Amino acid sequence: MITQTSYPVEPWALRERGLHLDVLPQSESVFALSNGHVGWRGNLDEGEPHGLPGTYLNGVHEIHPLPYAEAGYGYPESGQTVINVTNGKIIRLLVDDEPFDLRYGRLRSHERVLDLRAGTLTRTCEWTSPAGTTVRVRSTRLVSFTQRAVAAVAYEVEAVGGPARIVVQSELVANEQLPGHDGDPRAAVVLEAPLEAEEHFAKSGRLRLVHRTRRSGLRVGAAAGHVVEGPDPTTTESEAAGDLARLTVTSTLAAGERLRVEKVVSHGWSGTRSLPAMSDQVDAALAAAGSVGWAGLAAEQRAYLDAFWARSDVEVEGDEQIQQAVRFALFHVLQAGARAEQRAIPAKGLTGSGYDGHAFWDTEMFVLPLLTYTSPDAVAEALRWRQNTLPAARARAVQLGLRGAAFPWRTIEGAEGSAYWPAGTAAFHVNADIADAVVRYTAATGDEGFERDTGVELLVETARLWRSLGHHDQHGAFHLDGMTGPDEYSAVADDNTYTNLMARANLLAAADAVERHPRRAAELAVGEEETAAWRDAAEAMHIPYNHDLGVHEQHAGFTRYQRWDFAATRPDQYPLMLHFPYFDLYRKQVIKQADLVLAMYTCGPHFDAEHKARNFAYYEPLTVRDSSLSACCQAVVAAETGHLGLAHDYLREAALMDLEDLEHNTRDGLHIASLAGTWMALVAGFGGLRHHGESIGFAPCLPERLGGLAFTLQLRGRRLRVEIGRGTATYTLLTGEPLTIHHHGVALVLDADKPHTLDIPPRRPRPAPDQPPHRRPDRA
Ligand code: BGC
């Protein structure tokens, strides 16, 4: 576990004092830089030691066969896995005759700082070689938000206390050796050297490598340019071959003298472009970046982030650790989505190879809500990516004997990549989640062009899927049988409430959108009969309810199941899926992650306040939070049902998921959904933001331990600031036309720059619900 002392609490940075080799893989994830297109893990400049070397290009993957012990119809035949592309981070250093390797010699000081306003990772260290030569090294790197193909490093070495003969090798390296994969040995075979060399070039400090993946047939290019400053004589030499291109800089530094190397790297990839076109592409990106140089890139980065923070910051009073964590979270979610541009936003962003680099429903239900109110353009792009993958989703629906589009449970390029159908294929709710993201984005932006060109098609094809998946029974009720909801400890169950409510909203949204866009509807061959069938299904949607208990059922029959024997389950047997068969988990009342509880947030108007409270009290003691997606959802509903202290505890769990490595797998990459969930727990939890149709409402409330909370949102081209204090909330429209919002159900018209302060009604106290033994969240 990363101990908290490694990251001192401060508002705008994440700092590591000293070098903690035991948690190097975790810190490589935490210090990863990305813009959604290019991702550089926080590997040390010199490449070694490392936990997992990682350079990722969104969409670059390799395919591998998925053999099954027992084959079945419709199983995906191949899987996709993200690959480590050409590494442009590496800058090796030789001091006198010895490699600068922190495992040897004496490390006098070492510090890494992720600066959330500058968008840079800076490292400073002082090291004495085994032979006694001391140097100071300072490097700053960035992955550019403004020039999406570009990353850069400024690297400086200084002789301390005496002269030093210095050799710096700045490299591009392909097919780096990766540590053994502890999971899937089939994928590891492909990954061993996934890139075939096509071209190498080196001249006067300009480097280029172009490779191709073996099976997926993608061309991957990287180029680097350098500016070198050092005392005379400083010499340089460039060379390249196969998987390596290198600039070697040699200099002799007197005490206090410095050698500085500025390296700009450009990355590119394509499934269609020719070798010369790819070489030109990366060279051109390099030329554009070179024209502004390192200083220009750093200035652009800061300006981009200044604008981001002005429209997105969240201020937390009374819990400094959460203040730091939510900014860290916002920064990483921005990094995951900012420039993804019609590519997926993977569950780990571009911070690691966990989940094989796949995107899940995490994108639409966790990441896109945050981006909708802070960086809406990124949301439109993410949903256009879904639209671009419609051919694969339609083909999958046909294969499954269904209509419309069946979007994949997990994927990189659009095809279903889940080999486990009960939690993959059957998790059809991903389709309604995509529809929900379309509706939310359109409501929050009023982007009619998007709705017409992208939204309608996504809504129509998913509505078609639901209509063909379900059936009306003899009494007319509409059922969706054999679905897997968000809780993966229940599978292939009938009438999952979350799925049914989300599908209902999907069907109605599709019918409404078609009425607004008749021409588009005609192009998609939607007739009145079809929309009438959607509305019928929606209105007749069955929502299972246990009248004896007075609670909604997670799925039909769930509350009749035997309860999991929590008392007999030891703390070390969590997560349960690693210690018990799915067979047993599926037939008991035990919940991996918020499911019915999530439905109460996303489909809130379906439940009255009394049911929300009763359902929450019923499901809390069954929910073990074996998924990182759970705590933030529970935080939101805990806040709404008046359990403010518990909500704070859940907020902290979501917020510290990676900073404290709570799930012990931060090494594989960050939990981007849980990071986004930190924002959700604050803004939808304590801010009480709910956005259903045209109605935007807040129901603020603060837990005892927080003194204040403030956040800024983008809404229909306006900027709204919400400030919550102990007894009042203030709403200020910072820019834009008047806006109507609701405060605890009371409508309020806001005019620009006229703050409105309103009292916060007291919450009704309720008895605290229990959690399963050993699964209580840590108290704040
Ligand atoms: C969760 C899924 C989630 C996936 C990726 C799983 O453990 O159960 O809901 O989509 O992780 O984050």
Automatic annotation (TrEMBL):
Location of the Glycoside hydrolase family 65 C-terminal domain: 689-747
Glycoside hydrolase family 65 central catalytic domain: residues covered: 327-680
GO MF, one example: hydrolase activity, hydrolyzing O-glycosyl compounds
Residues annotated as the enzyme's active site: 488
Keyword Metal-binding attributed: no
Region (Disordered): 755-780
Pfam family of the protein (one): Glyco_hydro_65m
Top-rank taxon, per record: Bacteria
Glycoside hydrolase family 65 N-terminal domain: residues covered: 16-270
Family stated for the protein in its record: Belongs to the glycosyl hydrolase 65 family.
Full protein name: Glycoside hydrolase family 65 protein
Organism encoding this protein: Streptomyces nodosus
